[in-house]
Amino acid sequence: MADQLVWFKRDLRVADHAPLNAAIAAGPVRPVYVIEPELWAQPDSAQRHWAFIKDCLVELQVALSELGLELLVLNGSLPAVFAELHAKVPFAAIHSHQETGNAWSYARDRAVADWCRTAQVHWHQTPNFGVVRGLRKRTGWVKQWEARMTQPIADPLAKPAQAAVALPGAEWPETLGQGQLACPGRQAGGRQAAEQLLDSFLATRGQHYRQGMSSPGSAATVCSRLSPHMAYGTLSLREVVQRHRQRWAAVRAEAPGSAWSKSLKSFESRLHWHCHFIQKLEMDPSIEWRNRNPGDNDLRDEQNLDQARYTAWATGQTGIPFVDACMRQLIHDGWINFRMRAMLVAFSSYHLWLHWREPALHLARCFTDYEPGIHYCQIQMQAGTTGVHALRIYNPVKQSRDQDPDGEYIRRWVPQLSAVPTEWIHAPWHLTGQLQQRYGVKLGTDYPWPIVDHEKAAREAKARILARRKPVEPDQQTLDF
Ligand SMILES: Cc1cc2nc3c(=O)[nH]c(=O)nc-3n(C[C@H](O)[C@H](O)[C@H](O)COP(=O)(O)OP(=O)(O)OC[C@H]3O[C@@H](n4cnc5c(N)ncnc54)[C@H](O)[C@@H]3O)c2cc1C
């Protein structure tokens, strides 16, 4: 029987991996991961993504070796790498999951498909998640999602045959990607870490998910933290949905209407949103680079970015403590909760009046869990360029007082303000020179003055937008845009 290549992309696991099982059923298997230099040259790639992937590849190697298979890691452009491999050790088919990535990965997949046609290699692509390829309308999508999520979990088939000729793999580079920002708080990759997170979330951490998800102080513990594992596929979404539903059913039976039950209900919605947004990008890839609402095209200047404002925002130096604390945590940990992601985008889009494109790339490089479909849809929603959502102009001082009432989060991430009492910490620009001296901070030297008057900037942004279009009423808002 002819060799079968399994191309691991953003699905770094052996459990519930239909392409691996299809390959095992068809013939001797050669599992491959390709380190693609062009991918790592893209402006949305980052060192922290590669570091996470390396963790995953180490465990994937072990999991495959337990099946008697050896992971071949290659380095080079696609489809050239496949062509070279095929010349040395012909294979009849490539098995992979479908990928809904960015414009670059779409173009790469088309080039691979062209090569496959020429080389007469069959490329079998299996759906990943609940995203449906080739869909024109969303009617019936929820049913299809449900049908996929309730399919049985497929364990790897027993006794696979390894492709006969062993080949040497490439060196794994120490670093790859843009944005060489250190990320000491990065989450560990790999299946074990993912399973531990799912177990602890469903056993204890998730109980106060609903109440605790909005504050950056509590969110890191009460949120599942599964996002980078979903992005790189150490767990399948189906596995998460099924484990979660078992637990939710038990909680509902024991304590209906409890905090636990409400939290797991909220979690269920997020698991739908995951695919809902990726499906949007699958159906309209231009969401990555074009305003969804063309009426907003000349609203903000994409070509001439205000570098001073952008740099202050991207490095956590805006002089608005809560905004800076969030950006600094994100840079350090590679993760921050949903509401603070939304606030960071809203602040850059409304208060600083920056076009969303460069901030979106910066955040993509900061998020270990960067998932293009979710990312660009959320960016456009929070930047107000979809045309169908009410403006969400967060007041960063109100958010600060609501989400960090005692200022502890700010003190942790903006240590320059560590001695400033709570009454001043949310808006330290009100401190007199004498008070600054008393609390050990000199504004403009130790910590910046605010780069904008946030209230005035928010009023101006609102007026600029509403001068061009009618406000969207809250009840007209829709997830679908
Ligand atoms: C501007 C912006 C950019 C974002 N970019 C990304 C991104 O690149 N990758 C990413 O995974 N999430 C992104 N999100 C969504 C969300 O913030 C993260 O999924 C979540 O914070 C991840 O933490 P968690 O795994 O603990 O989530 P939990 O709250 O525990 O949720 C569980 C899972 O549900 C999904 N999910 C949760 N919230 C959302 C949401 N609002 N939309 C879609 N799916 C959701 C994720 O897969 C997540 O892992 C973005 C949000 C905003 C506002």
What does this entry look like structurally?
The protein has 481 residues and is an alpha/beta fold. The chain has three domains: 3-128, 3-Layer(aba) Sandwich (Rossmann fold); 191-283, Serine Threonine Protein Phosphatase 5, Tetratricopeptide repeat, CATH 1.25.40; 294-476, DNA Cyclobutane Dipyrimidine Photolyase, subunit A, domain 3 (Orthogonal Bundle), CATH 1.10.579. 49% of the residues lie in helices and 6% in strands. The chain has 22 helices and five strands. The protein has helices at 18-26, 37-40, 47-66, 80-88, 103-119, 141-149, 191-203, 209-212, 216-222, 227-232, 237-254, 259-283, 307-314, 321-333, 338-351, 357-366, 372-383, 396-403, 408-413, 422-425, 433-438, 454-466, and strands at residues 3-8, 29-35, 72-75, 91-97, 122-126. A five-stranded parallel beta sheet has the order 3-2-1-4-5. Helix 11 runs antiparallel to helix 12 (259-283), helix 12 packs across helix 17 and helix 15 (338-351) packs across helix 17 (372-383). It is globular and about 80 Å long. 44% of the residues are buried. The structure holds flavin-adenine dinucleotide.
